[in-house]
Amino acid sequence: MRRQLASSTESFPIAGGFTISRGTKTEARVVTCRITAGGRTGQGECVPYPRYGESVESVLAEIAAATAEIESGASREELRGIMKAGAARSAVDCALWDLEAKLSGEPVWSRINAAEPEALTTAYTISLGEPEAMAAQTSRHADRALLKVKVGTADDASRIRAVRSAAPNARIILDANEGWTAETLAYHLAVCAEAGIDLIEQPLPAGKDEALREIARIVPVCADESVHLASDLAALTDRYDAINIKLDKAGGLTEALDLRAEAARLGLKVMVGCMVGSSLAMAPAVLLAQGADFVDLDGPLLLARDREPALRYEASLVFPPSAKLWG
């Protein structure tokens, strides 16, 4: 069946800005891919990420370079040989999943999970800032079940303690975004243990994380920037206890499912995370996250406006997507 592919850029303002150790964003610039065949259209969204050398322009160029093969009927498996892992392939891969569901009438969840999807408890992200500002931000969300706190400075002890004081009952994930060093690692791990932190995400730079092999990980450590593909995992088990699967890193739901399966085989815990994007980017991730140990799919909650139809969020819960949105 002949297909027609179209891609476009969209911008969603972020409410109040979003700060991590690498800087601050005020908008989410996304690329949306739409593939039409048989009178039906599937769509997927990705967020180009400069950390991986991506931009809106580079993602559009990657999609354009693969358009002829996609329109002539390349499968999702064949797509992995046509496009490299990353945001561009993720948008196309997710659009193909959505198109297949719309053409067949069979929802995506029934093909990837054993049971109908349920609402999941998602983390809510606290941006990096001075300890007092982070405590104030946390206090506004202290009733949430799970928080994800951005850190990554030379001395995060005061930030960790301030956040914990502001949310004494919440489970907390810390995300250092590669901002710690081997020299500060033991100190920060001890502070995290004292504060009852559940998980620490990517404390050291990818490729410079040997110290994690040698230190007692008294708080579980999760790989993010260090893991993209299922083939990465075997080499990480001596340094990490969990992995963060993001569709835009993996290059789509197809590879992400392999990551989930390989993590289970190796005994690694799984977080399903996201970039800051709209509900369209989160929708396939909600299905992937069924049964995950940690879920971080709050992207739309950080936006000043979302697309319609949107995912349903209630308190700490995110609900599976409607067929009108995706899948």
UniProtKB/TrEMBL annotation:
InterPro entries: DgoD-like, Dipeptide_epimerase, Enolase-like_C_sf, Enolase-like_N, Enolase_C-like, Mandelate_racemase_C, Mandelate_racemase_N_dom. Binds 1 Mg(2+) ion per subunit. It comes from the Bacteria. GO terms for molecular function: metal ion binding; racemase and epimerase activity, acting on amino acids and derivatives. This is Dipeptide epimerase. Keywords: Isomerase, Magnesium, Metal-binding. CDD domains: L-Ala-DL-Glu_epimerase (cd03319). Mg(2+) binds at residues 175, 201, 224. Its cofactor is Mg(2+). The active site is at 150 (proton acceptor), 246 (proton acceptor). Its EC number is 5.1.1.-. Residues 131-222 form the Mandelate racemase/muconate lactonizing enzyme C-terminal domain. Belongs to the mandelate racemase/muconate lactonizing enzyme family. It holds the Pfam family MR_MLE_C.
